[in-house]
Write a structure and sequence with these properties.
The chain has 303 residues and is α/β, with parallel strands linked by helices. The protein is built from 13 helices and 14 strands. The strands form four sheets. An eight-stranded parallel β-barrel has the order 3-4-5-6-7-10-11-14, surrounded by four helices. It has a two-stranded antiparallel ribbon with strand order 1-2. A two-stranded antiparallel sheet has the order 8-9. Helix 3 links the parallel strand 3 (39-41) and strand 4. The relative contact order is 0.13.
């Protein structure tokens, strides 16, 4: 859900040079460890965005965010979203969907992305091969009950969607949470997804925070599968201390939790990361204050 009117600005050589200087010389616009525009997953502002769509986008731009990733469009058309993004000076790189929502309307989602000017369609929630076997197939418990057969079926769906997206000039990606890092018969589901998805059709968006919660080292994943990742989600968690059984640790502002991003970004520098999005799911302070802390952390971090 974001678009940037900068394209018309780039039509002349002089404008291109001016824009290049702006994006390379201003620390306000760049997320420092990877030299990428500072990005935000809009799920972070899910409570305030529907109430003041354009105003919220302008506030995010004022904090230094330049790229965003959508998590719902709140009944806005692609044209309305594009216009709002342009006015705020934001670019909507990608959008998240559940597989349940994607499968019945793949072509519609692809066309929306094309109209918006997005680069990626991202599946952020897999589904059971046979949804009738559980009471609430969309629940976290259902995802955690997924078997190796379910994940193999999902990989097949991803390849088909990726092929259709490629044909339309958009890339398809998969975004992890924690169930992907469970195992069956000695096979970790995430490894099986990597094995069965076609790299030419399916790229990956690594959620570093959820990978850590799932017992993984994101730096190791980025090293092992360096060519498979195009995007990162960066978030922090308070992973120490007692937590209720089955309850994930609490999300917090970047730098205020327990995840050390230095090694993660060191590995990411050797991968093929094109976009990095901050995402915060819970707040100890007002959302915009928290997202400023996140932006400042990203700008200051060096590896």
């Amino acid at each position: 859900m974001r678009r940037i009117s900068r394209r018309s600005f780039l039509k002349t050589a002089s404008a291109s040079a001016a824009c290049a200087a702006l994006w390379t010389n201003s620390p306000r616009l760049m997320a420092n460890p990877l030299g990428l525009p500072l990005g935000l997953q809009l799920y972070s502002v899910r409570d305030i965005l529907p109430k003041d769509y354009e105003g919220t986008l302008r506030q995010l731009a004022a904090l230094g965010y330049r790229e965003v990733e959508a998590a719902g469009f709140f009944n806005h058309s692609a044209g309305e979203v594009k216009q709002a993004m342009d006015r705020a000076g934001l670019r909507c790189v990608s959008a998240h969907y559940s597989l349940k929502d994607l499968l019945p309307k793949v072509d519609e989602v692809i066309q929306f992305g094309k109209d918006l000017g997005s680069q990626y369609i991202v599946c952020a929630a897999p589904m059971l091969k046979d949804a009738s076997r559980v009471k609430d197939p969309g629940s976290r418990a259902a995802r955690e009950s997924m078997t190796l057969e379910d994940w193999r079926w999902n990989a097949d769906q991803f390849n088909h969607i990726g092929e259709r997206a490629n044909a339309a000039g958009i890339r398809f990606a998969y975004h992890n949470h924690t169930p992907e890092f469970r195992s069956e018969g000695g096979v970790m589901f995430y490894d099986e997804l990597m094995r069965l998805t076609d790299p030419s059709k399916v790229t990956m968006e690594l959620d570093c925070g959820w990978a850590v919660v799932g017992g993984q080292n994101p730096a190791d994943l980025l090293t092992r599968y360096a060519a498979r990742f195009s995007m990162l989600h960066v978030k922090d968690f308070k992973t120490t201390g007692a937590a209720a059984a089955g309850t994930p640790p609490r999300s917090t502002e970047m730098g205020r939790g327990t995840i050390d991003y230095h090694a993660i970004f060191e590995a990411a520098k050797k991968a093929k990361i094109e976009h990095a999005f901050v995402e915060q799911e819970e707040f100890d302070v007002p959302a915009m204050e928290a997202l400023k802390i996140d932006a400042d952390y990203m700008r200051a971090l060096t590896v």
